[in-house]
Amino acid sequence: MIKTVSGWLAAIWRGGFNIVPLHYSNSPNLVEKTDQIVMATSLPTIVLVHGAWHTPANYKSYSDALEAQGFKVLCPQLPSCNDKSPPVSSFTEDVTAVRDVVKSLVEADEQVLVAMHSYGGAVGTDAVQGLTFADRKAEGKSGGVIHLFYMCAYIVVPGTSVWDICQEAGFAQLWPQFIQNFDDGSTFPVDPSLSFLGGVEQDIVDKALPNLVRSPISAFEAKTKGDAWRRVPVTYILTQQDYSVPRPYQDLMLEKVKIEGVVVKTEDYETCHSVFITKEKEMVDAVVVAAGDERNLG
């Protein structure tokens, strides 16, 4: 099985997207870029949308690290991620759960940065529809989502599902090698250590695995509706050693967004799917930069 995946990685196309070089200061309110310094008047609230099969507990260390930089962080539990049999929630309920959190913040005139991991990208993008800073400004309102931060996450055009990307990338036939579909409609990784935590220290793996749960296959088949990335600045974190959202998926999705005329700031890492664990400091620094992006209030 690993030999097969190595073949995928050898065939990865790495062209077409420029990595934006960034430099970081020690202050969360001062973001230094290669050619300019951007002052952030206040820090946005971060809504962290976790991935399938995960729970907020898997993101505790990352959330704590963001809070140490002065951010308020909210990581709502996605209803579809549970061990109930048969599944009682799916993509729609996940979107509603995240939207309720984001809506309560923006209606209190807060600025929000939505950080999304994996499947959480599809959920988060749908959840913020109509709640962006640009949308609300056009209505004469304050607050709104000012930045979308995708960590090896699904960023798709409306009408596309997670499963569609899998099929279009030519990986559908390999799904059974990595994901077990149960008769009750739920799914779980065949080898979660490989799927999510390749190269991570064993003690971290041992702590993370008990927090994983089943997710319904229906969540991956649901068609998305959101396109907030057309109106909100986007940062995308690419991962080269990813067995859950393989690099070809990421390149395919970004190419589709690029065709739409959207400029995406990217950073590229030689790491596994759980980049928020393996590159925690870098992911905190990247959020600091995203929070101070001069495009956010444009």
From TrEMBL:
Protein name per the record: AB hydrolase-1 domain-containing protein
Gene3D superfamilies listed in its UniProt record: alpha/beta hydrolase
AB hydrolase-1 domain: residues covered: 46-264
InterPro entries in the cross-refs: AB_hydrolase_1, AB_hydrolase_fold, Sec-Metab_Biosynth_Hydrolase
Pfam families associated with the record: Abhydrolase_6
UniProt-listed PANTHER family: AB HYDROLASE-1 DOMAIN-CONTAINING PROTEIN, AB HYDROLASE-1 DOMAIN-CONTAINING PROTEIN-RELATED
